[in-house]
Write a structure and sequence with these properties.
Blueprint: H1 2-20, E1 26-33, E2 38-43, E3 49-54, E4 58-63, E5 69-74, E6 80-85, E7 91-96, E8 100-105, E9 111-116, E10 120-121, E11 127-128, E12 131-136, E13 142-147, E14 151-156, E15 164-168, E16 180-185, E17 191-196, E18 199-204, E19 210-215, E20 227-232, E21 238-243, E22 247-252, E23 257-263, E24 273-275, E25 281-287, E26 290-295, E27 300-306, E28 312-317, E29 323-328, E30 332-338, H2 358-361, E31 372-375, E32 378-381, E33 385-387, H3 404-417, E34 422-428, H4 435-455, E35 463-469, H5 480-486, E36 488-495
Parallel strand pairs: 34-35
Antiparallel strand pairs: 1-30, 2-3, 3-4, 4-5, 6-7, 7-8, 8-9, 10-11, 12-13, 13-14, 14-15, 16-17, 17-18, 18-19, 20-21, 21-22, 22-23, 24-25, 25-26, 26-27, 28-29, 29-30, 31-32, 33-36, 34-36
Length: 496
C-alpha cells in the first residue's frame, strides 16, 4: 500500500513538471461527432480519410478536410475494437467484441469477407471469442486477427472460406494462457508481431514459426500486469509496447533487447499510441480526458491535448502531416494541429553610405578559428573521417554486434557534450555479391547505427548517412580477415 501511494505522489509531481515544461501547443481544427463511444480510429494510407470503430457496432469513414461522413458500414452487434485499411487504401477491415472480422470494399460499399474467431470454451463454460486486432497482409490478399481465445487466425479475402488457425499462444496441452491484446503485420510484410500476457511474439508469415519471443519484466508489486498493445517502430527492426503499468517500452527485435521505457500514464490504464512521420514524436491517450505528445529524443512530454469530455481511448498521428486525431468515449473525434506562431520579419534600418568610402567603412572579415574535438584519443577537425572500429557486422547482415554498443555510446556522449556537432555515418561493405545490393545493405547498416543514436536522445537532423557499399575498401578483399575490415562504418565530422 505504501509503495502504491509513493508511486502516485511521484506520478503527480512528474505530471506537473511535464506540464510546466511543455514546448508545443496544439489546437483543435475539427470536431467530428460519431454519436457513440469511439473505441478505435485509423487514418487511410494517403491521409485523406479517418475510419472509426464505435460501441454501436458501426464503422464510419470521414473526410478529415471537410469533416463529412464518406461511408458507414454495419457488421457487428457489439463494440468495434479495431479498424484498419489495406495498404492500397481500397479495403477496410473491422474487428469486433462479437468475435467477427468484416472486410469491405470502400469504393463499392460491398462486403468482401466475414470471418469468425475460433472460440475457446473454458471448463466453466465461458466462451472467449472477442477479437482485439486485425491487419492486412502487405498484398491485401489476407487478414490476420486474434483476441481473447489466444489464436492467430488468417482469412483469405474474396473466398467464402472460414478463417484458419495459423498459430496458438495457448499452453501445449491446449489450456488457455491469456488474451492476445494487439498485433501488427511488420513493415516488410514478412512477419506478424503480437502481444499476449507478458510476451511479444514475432511469427513468420510463410511457415508461421516463431521467430522471436520477448518477455516484459515482471513486477511483483503489481499483481495485474500484462501488455495491452504493440506496434512497429519508431526505428528499423523496432517494436513498441504499451503495458498495464502505464509504460511504453521500445524493443530491438534484432538483438531481442529492451532499449528504453517511458511512463506515459498512471497504472492500470491502456490505450493506443502512435508515432509521427519522422518517428521522433509520440502521442498517447488513456490518461483521463487528455492526450499527451512526447519528444522521443529527449524522453519528455511537450504538449497536452484537452477538450474531450470522457476518456480518450485512441490517439493517432497523421501519416504525412503534422496532425493528430483523438477519439473518446464522449462520442467525438478531434483533429489537432500544432499551433505555429507567426514570426514577423525584423525592420531593417538602411543607412546611406558614401560610395567613395565603402572600402574604408567595411570592417576586415574576421579570421575563422578552426574548431576541434577529441574522440577516441584523436583530435578531429571538420571534414576529417575516423573508422568506428568496433561497429562491425557479419557478412550479409545489418545487425549490430554487441561490441558496437560501447563505441556508439561514446559517440552519443560526444554529441551530447558538443551540442553543435553534426556528423555523417558512412556505410561500407565487402565486395561479395551484387554491388547494388551491397549499397542497400550499407544503408541499412548506417541506419541501424543512426537509430541507436536517435533512441539515445540525439536529434536526427544532426546525423547524415551515406552508403558506399563496396566502392571504397579499406584493404583488398582477398581474405575473410580483410573483408571483415571492409564491413565497417566511418564517422565524418561535418560541423563542430
Amino acid at each position: 500500500m505504501k509503495s502504491f501511494f509513493t508511486f502516485w505522489i511521484i506520478w503527480i509531481i512528474s505530471t506537473f513538471l511535464c506540464a510546466e515544461n511543455q514546448d508545443n501547443e496544439y489546437i483543435t481544427r475539427r470536431v467530428i461527432s460519431v454519436k457513440s463511444p469511439v473505441q478505435n480510429i485509423r487514418f487511410s494510407p494517403n491521409g485523406v480519410w479517418l475510419a472509426a470503430g464505435a460501441k454501436n457496432g458501426y464503422v464510419t469513414i470521414w473526410d478529415i478536410k471537410t469533416g463529412k461522413l464518406v461511408k458507414r458500414f454495419w457488421g457487428h452487434n457489439q463494440t468495434v475494437n479495431e479498424v484498419t485499411f489495406s495498404q492500397n487504401g481500397e479495403l477496410i477491415a473491422s474487428a469486433g467484441a462479437d468475435g467477427l472480422v468484416n472486410v469491405w470494399n470502400i469504393h463499392t460499399g460491398l462486403k468482401v469477407g466475414t470471418y469468425r474467431n475460433k472460440t475457446y470454451l473454458t471448463r466453466a463454460g465461458q466462451a472467449f471469442k472477442f477479437v482485439s486486432f486485425v491487419d492486412f497482409s502487405k498484398d491485401g490478399k489476407y487478414v490476420y486477427f486474434g483476441g481473447d481465445s489466444g489464436y492467430i487466425m488468417r482469412g483469405e479475402i474474396g473466398r467464402k472460406k472460414q478463417a484458419q488457425v495459423v498459430f496458438s499462444s495457448n499452453h501445449p496441452n491446449g489450456d488457455w494462457y491469456f488474451s492476445i491484446t494487439g498485433g501488427r503485420v511488420s513493415e516488410d510484410g514478412k512477419s506478424l508481431i503480437f502481444c499476449v500476457g507478458l510476451y511479444i511474439y514475432q511469427i513468420d508469415l510463410q511457415n508461421f514459426f516463431t521467430k522471436k519471443k520477448l518477455s516484459y519484466p515482471r513486477n511483483k508489486k503489481q499483481k495485474t500486469l500484462h501488455l495491452n498493445d504493440v506496434t512497429t517502430g519508431p526505428f528499423i527492426n523496432g517494436v513498441s509496447t504499451w503495458s498495464y503499468d502505464g509504460r511504453v517500452t521500445f524493443w530491438n527485435l534484432t538483438t531481442s533487447k529492451k532499449i528504453s521505457s517511458m511512463q506515459v500514464s498512471k497504472p492500470e490504464t491502456y490505450s493506443t499510441f502512435s508515432f509521427d512521420k519522422s518517428k521522433t514524436l509520440m502521442v498517447t491517450g488513456a490518461d483521463g480526458k487528455v492526450a499527451k505528445v512526447w519528444d522521443l529524443q529527449h524522453g519528455r512530454q511537450i504538449a497536452e491535448l484537452s477538450g474531450h469530455q470522457e476518456i480518450i481511448r485512441t490517439a493517432r498521428f497523421h501519416p504525412h502531416k503534422n496532425l493528430i486525431a483523438t477519439a473518446s468515449y464522449d462520442g467525438t473525434i478531434r483533429i489537432w494541429e500544432e499551433k505555429i506562431e507567426e514570426v514577423l520579419p525584423a525592420l531593417v534600418s538602411i543607412k546611406k553610405i558614401d560610395p567613395v568610402n565603402i572600402l574604408e567603412n567595411t570592417p576586415e572579415k574576421p579570421h575563422r578559428v578552426q574548431k576541434t574535438i577529441f574522440f577516441q584519443e584523436k583530435l578531429l577537425t571538420e571534414g576529417e573521417t575516423i573508422n568506428l572500429r568496433k561497429v562491425r557486422f557479419n557478412q550479409g547482415s545489418y545487425i549490430l554486434q554487441n561490441q558496437a554498443f560501447d563505441e556508439l555510446q561514446q559517440l552519443v556522449n560526444l554529441m551530447k557534450k558538443n551540442r553543435t556537432l553534426k556528423i555523417r555515418l558512412e556505410g561500407h561493405t565487402d565486395n561479395v555479391g551484387d554491388p547494388q545490393k551491397n549499397r542497400a545493405l550499407a544503408r541499412r547498416r548506417v541506419l541501424a547505427a543512426k537509430n541507436f543514436l536517435i533512441m539515445k536522445g540525439i536529434y536526427e537532423q544532426r546525423i547524415e548517412i551515406l552508403a558506399y557499399g563496396g566502392e571504397k575498401p579499406l584493404v583488398e578483399n582477398n581474405s575473410e580477415t580483410n573483408r571483415k575490415l571492409n564491413r565497417r562504418i566511418e564517422l565524418k565530422i561535418l560541423e563542430i
